[in-house]
Design a protein that fits this description.
This protein has helices at 21-36, 53-63, 72-76, 93-102, 117-131, 147-157, 189-192, 196-212, 345-360, 368-386; strands spanning 10-17, 41-49, 67-69, 83-86, 106-110, 137-140, 164-172, 216-224, 229-233, 243-249, 255-262, 267-273, 282-289, 292-297, 303-308, 319-322, 392-393. It is an alpha/beta fold. It is globular, with a radius of gyration of 21 Å. Helices cover 31% and strands 26% of the residues. It has ten helices and 17 strands. It binds alpha-L-sorbopyranose. Alpha-L-sorbopyranose binds at residues 21, 173, 199-200, 281.
Length: 399
């Protein structure tokens, strides 16, 4: 049965701009969401856009997009596009997102929202205006949609650990330990905005704010670049590509270590690094409350550790909850209880939540305003680092 057979049922036609690693993950999301969830609209993977005609045509065929194109401006202006999904490097997020919002499209934009606070503000303003016209704008902080992370948020909101007193969050990767790893776009400030701080630190800032329901109100931190020059990357993108002659300067941080104070006054420690030898995608977050604690590890993403301080003393200890029951967020649409999910499922849940928000006329989280909030924290960490790690209050900042 097609959408046309169902009176009143909409078809949402998606254009994805970019087709690297995140493009692959988002393609899986758009493909799987209508197959797994009972969505209130049909989804059509209409067109994928890239600069190289051959490469984008290959990506379209591989991931199941109906068409490919090389000019995002033309695509964003098309009448037959409803959702623009932006998976390009950060230096083009603002221009594409604002153009898409002004053209009447709903927008999904990869994290971090932008490369600067000024860009993020312009994007949040454009999203605010578009919201009045019924458009939705969401940021791709996909880890919020790992069932165990959503469940952690729910448990904290229900008071399962009492008052939050401390947070420990870290995102540790090691793909830059090799000094011969080339100077990819993620290592260039003008393309990526910042390094480990914005790429993976943004995730743990967002996750902390999401699970605790509190904003980061002040930060003090230090960022550092361990390998200052790297081999230039020739043609190609990402980490693949041909070698070129010579070395270029790394203009972003490799490591960011910072302390945050939440609205309530609770302390939070953060570490974002691409130099954690042996750690591949090691995101951990532990929230300690006066009645208990919750801990999540991305490398064991189907579980949540729960400590209940109100249990009898001789039975206390961290309990491993398998977040694979039908009662857990998102899980019932997948497999019978006890069957695990992985990295890609967050992208499926993200597509589902956006489609549902568009049809219901409600804002899926995180909004562009939330993305702007994270951007301000990133900028505050850099400001702190540049000033001997002074405390920078978020509400005291002009931008
Ligand atoms: C690279 O460090 C990266 O791909 C991030 O950009 C993603 O947001 C994260 O999901 C995995 O690591």
């Amino acid at each position: 049965m097609t959408a046309d057979d169902l009176p009143g049922r909409a078809t949402l036609r998606v254009a994805m701009i970019g087709h690297g690693f995140m493009g692959a993950a988002h393609s899986v999301g758009w493909r799987q969401a209508p197959a797994v969830f009972d969505l209130p609209a049909d989804v059509e993977m209409t067109v994928v856009v890239g600069r190289n005609a051959d490469a984008v045509a290959e990506a379209a065929a591989h991931w199941g997009w109906a068409e490919s194109a090389t000019d995002w401006r033309e695509v964003v202006a098309r009448d037959d596009i409803d959702i623009v999904d932006i998976v390009t490097p950060g230096d083009s997020h603002a221009e594409i997102a604002i153009a898409a919002l002004e053209a009447g499209k709903h927008v999904l934009c990869e994290k971090p929202l932008a490369n600067t606070v000024a860009e993020a503000e312009a994007m949040a303003d454009a999203a605010g205006r578009a919201r009045g016209r019924g458009q939705r704008a969401v940021v791709g902080f996909t880890y919020r949609r790992v069932p165990a992370v959503t469940f952690m948020r729910d448990l904290i909101a229900q008071g399962a650990i009492g008052t939050v007193q401390q947070v420990r969050a870290a995102y540790r990767q090691d793909w830059l330990v090799d000094p011969q790893m080339p100077l990819a776009w993620r290592l260039q400030k003008e393309r990526a905005g910042s390094g480990a701080l914005g790429d993976i630190g943004a995730h743990i800032i967002d996750m902390t704010q999401f699970v605790t329901g509190q904003s980061v109100a002040a930060v003090s931190g230090t960022v550092d670049t361990i390998v200052k020059e790297r081999p230039l990357l020739g043609s190609g993108s990402g980490l693949a590509g041909t070698a070129a002659e010579g070395y270029g300067e790394v203009t972003v941080d490799d490591v960011a270590v910072f302390t945050g104070r939440l609205e309530s006054g609770a302390l939070a420690s953060f570490e974002a690094t691409r130099f954690a030898t042996g750690r591949k995608n090691g995101l951990t977050i532990e929230v300690s409350g006066d009645q208990g604690a919750l801990a999540f590890e991305l490398e064991d993403l189907n579980t949540l550790q729960f400590y209940d301080r109100t249990a009898p003393g001789d039975r206390q200890g961290f309990t491993k909850i398998l977040v694979t029951e039908g009662a857990h967020p998102y899980v019932s649409a997948w497999w019978p209880a006890g069957h695990m999910l992985g990295y890609e499922h967050g992208f499926v849940h993200q597509a589902k939540d956006l489609v549902e928000g568009i049809i219901a006329g409600t804002d899926p989280h995180p909004t562009f305003a939330d993305g702007l909030g994270v951007q301000r924290v990133l900028a505050a960490v850099e400001e702190s680092s540049a000033n001997d790690s002074i405390w920078v209050r978020l509400d005291a900042r002009a931008t």
